[in-house]
Amino acid sequence: KMTQQMRDLQLAQARKPQGPSSPNAAKRLYRNLSGKFRVNYTSFDEGSLAGRGEKDKLRKSYLFQSNAALFEAVELQDLDRVQELLKQYSPEELDLNTPNSEGLLPLDIAIMTNNAPIARALLQAGAKESPHFVSLESRSLHLSTLVREAEQRVNELTAQVVNEAPNADCSEKEKQLKAWEWRYRLYKRMKAGFEHARVPDAPTNVHLSVASSSSVQVTFWEPLSVNSAVVTKYKVEWSCSPTFSPPLGEAVIDKLKNLHFTIRGLVSGTAYYVQVSAYNMKGWGPPQASVPPFAIPSNWREYDGRAPRRRGQAEALDHLLGQVKTVHQHCVCHEPCKNQPQSRKHSVSKSLKHLFHPGSKFLKTLKRGLYLTAIFYKDDNILVTHEDQIPVVEIDDTYSCLLMQDFLWFTKVSCMWDEILWLRQCVTVSQSSCSCILQTRFKMLLAISQMQGLLGIQDLGQVFFEPVKDKQGNILIVTLKEVKTNQTFESVRWVPICKLQTSRKSVSSPEEPTALDTLLISVQDKLAYHQRSSHALSPGLYLGYLKLCSAVDQIRVLVPERLPNILCHVKIRSNPNISREEWEWLQKMASVEEPVPAEPEAEISQNHLFQELQVAIKELMTLVNIPLQEAKDFRLYSQEVLDFGGQVSFLLLLPPSDDVCTAPGQNNPYTPRSGFLTLPLQIFELGEER
């Protein structure tokens, strides 16, 4: 009766077509329609449709067919087709959680036929179980009704086929009979799958950690047993009592892409116990207590009440810059800057026309001197002038040896592209001392203003970490900026990088290329560096390795090429928080004069952070090519945890004091493998801030 009511309701809504005439017919149906499913609806000529309403009807028709194909793919246990449909359509377009005429959802069929791969794929896409199955009895009754009605229909069709003479109607009834026989076997298999299933075992590897001073995080894995039905949700419970009486709260997790949950709004310093249980179509399984059994919300700063290092620093710097501007308000240089209209920030499409104006002052060739070049790129294309040249302007034609301090000063200026006019005018007033350094830096500001004016763009991007030089005495300071807008620019030449490289006629020999030739040859490497330097780490706690090397005029830091804005590192865990208890343990280890023994005491071995650090140190030493036995003299930086935005934190591993910074001429017996580079410390700090 219940099944008949569901069927009447669904038929009234005309949600689903008649079932396939046979298993092979069903398979042919959704396979042959697969080409139609891939139609690009936006590619239809509007004139070929009667109107928007007809177009919407056509799209709904395709989506209706895709929904039917999904059911048939699940019934036929075609995992590849299920994954293809889930990738091609959204859950809403597939009506993923709308029951068919039998009151079933795709997930119901998958779990009752015990097809774990398809069930997991559906769960990842957000599939739910049918809301009609409010109890075990209702599910059992529904399945029994489906089996009984399918069996009755098979018997009726069998009698008709046997009693009727061979004709067209009889042939059609034979097809219907085969289809119902197949559906009868499907329902029997679903009923048997439900009857033989049992509640799931407890989840495994239930780990509890402190996420902050007011939250804890629990992570867990699926139950180990493969004999029970597919788990469709989990329940996390927490309490201040180890008996969970009274319980403080619970949460049901039905999005199974990531098996973890953060319990928020807890009281700092209070112990919380957590347990997790799994659910399948037979009900809830037994709970599994976490390891450790409880956690106390806290943060390492509570150990000594230390405030965040960077708290208020940005505001203080803004205030300091405002004070400097206030002091210079009496200067004649300040008024033009103040009156500079905000419309200076032209649209890119309008301002880039300057590139093709015949009166532009971009240089074609380099003489002996210091130059500025700006590389703007989009995908695999690069912006060039009307003469197919990378934009280059002159800084100083008498400057043949760029001092590192001048270059580092330029990189700091790149953080204030919007303030160049003000800086230039103030330096103009203060250069009466005729200092060579001020003269050079003033010319740098002039060149920046010229480049901004010719391009019509203030933000020239990020400075590459080292200038490009040649043996003729030319020095190129390179800035890099990615243009992400999809706007089409008029009269702007975006030239493929490979075409620019092959079409440029070099005026130098391969043995002694000019700085421009060197730039073109290595431009892909520089663009790759620029893109990688903007990548961010995923949330978590990391172990970083600090290694410096010094030269006459600079200190450089070792970084990985794949992420040059971060120290060499490995991930310790996904939880970035260090609890007060963990920090106390780290402080205790740092104060021990003797090294930690190879076989730690029982209580230390149970410290989860200790185990995580052991694994991370081994991995990090392998990464930077240092023998593990050398690590016994290394030490953890125990003054603070380096915090980056609250989602990423670092513990630093330091070599012995004498080896932190390698002096000029000092031999380093352990050279890192390929995949690393050394950046000037100031450049690294700027990249980190970005």
From TrEMBL:
Q: Where is this region: Disordered?
A: 1-26
A Gene Ontology cellular component where this protein is annotated is: spindle
The record ties this protein, via SUPFAM superfamilies, to:
Ankyrin repeat, Fibronectin type III
The residue ranges of the Fibronectin type-III domain are: 202-299
List the Pfam families.
Answer: fn3
Among PROSITE patterns, the record links this protein to: FN3 (PS50853)
The organism's place on the tree of life at top rank: Eukaryota
InterPro entries, sorted: ANKFN1 (IPR039269), Ankyrin_rpt-contain_sf (IPR036770), FN3_dom (IPR003961), FN3_sf (IPR036116), Ig-like_fold (IPR013783)
Give a GO biological-process term.
regulation of establishment of bipolar cell polarity
| Gene3D superfamilies, per the entry | Ankyrin repeat-containing domain, Immunoglobulins
Q: What is this protein called?
A: ANKF1 protein
